[in-house]
Design goal:
Number of helices: 6
Largest sheet: 5 strands, antiparallel
Order of helices and strands: HEEEEEHEEHHHEEEHEE
Shape: globular
Helix content: 25-40%
Radius of gyration: 22 Å
Strand content: 25-35%
Structural class: alpha+beta
Number of strands: 12
Length: about 210
């Protein structure tokens, strides 16, 4: 099953702790490996406690993957759209990483609930980056318009040796997977989760009745 939306628990905890103990902010320098393929580097200094640097390194991409500066296509736009002025893209990125972001803690929402939701979104950076191509494709399909060069096989990065492939078209799309069993499991789970529906039947006398299935 593809799981992209789950935020990094460790990254989220680091962010929450930084906000909670901002007055006593200390220097941070953490390296984190998530799902055995995505790497993070989180840094913060005592001289500039209101800013944090977050770098991410994604898994090796299959040959079919469309990349832009080492990132899946649409990733930069997705990051800007998700984080706005709170996260600024640092160019060039840290050595060994495809993307480095500078987090400005002073621009976080003052409302606690809104602030927590944004921190969760920041901790979900992996899903924002790796899920960008799929979001772009779905956006085009929803508008029934696909880019001229998008009628070819497109690789959607997930984990090492576990990539999905999509062929988008204006009215439909075909998906190929190296994880057939995982896809079948997902389909079965979705089928089990379908809500009951009502179907209307008619008797031989023309009367109608509804039956729950």
């Amino acid at each position: 099953m593809i799981v992209l939306e789950t935020p990094s628990r460790f990254l989220l905890q680091v962010l929450l702790n930084r906000i909670q103990f901002l007055v006593k902010a200390v220097e941070l320098d953490y390296h984190l490996v998530e799902f055995n393929d995505v790497r993070y580097h989180i840094q913060a200094t005592m001289k500039d406690p209101h800013h944090m640097a977050l770098s991410i390194s994604i898994p090796p991409a299959p040959p079919e993957t469309v990349l832009a500066n080492g990132l899946p296509f649409g990733a930069i736009e997705a990051v800007r759209g998700a984080y706005g002025a709170v996260m600024q893209i640092v160019d060039p990125a840290e050595d060994g990483f495809q993307l480095t972001l500078k987090l400005d803690l002073t621009k976080l929402p003052s409302n606690e609930e809104a602030r927590t939701q944004l921190l969760i979104k920041i901790a979900s950076l992996r899903s924002v980056v790796l899920g960008a191509p799929l979001r772009e494709i779905m956006k085009h399909l929803a508008s029934k318009a696909v880019a001229p060069d998008a009628d070819r096989l497109i690789a959607l990065m997930h984990r090492p040796k576990e990539s999905f492939f999509l062929i988008p078209q204006c009215s439909k799309s075909f998906m190929h997977s190296r994880m057939r069993r995982r896809v079948e499991t997902l389909i079965q789970a979705l089928n089990r989760a379908r809500p009951d529906v009502e179907k209307e039947k008619k008797t031989a006398q023309g009367r109608s009745f509804k039956r729950h299935i």
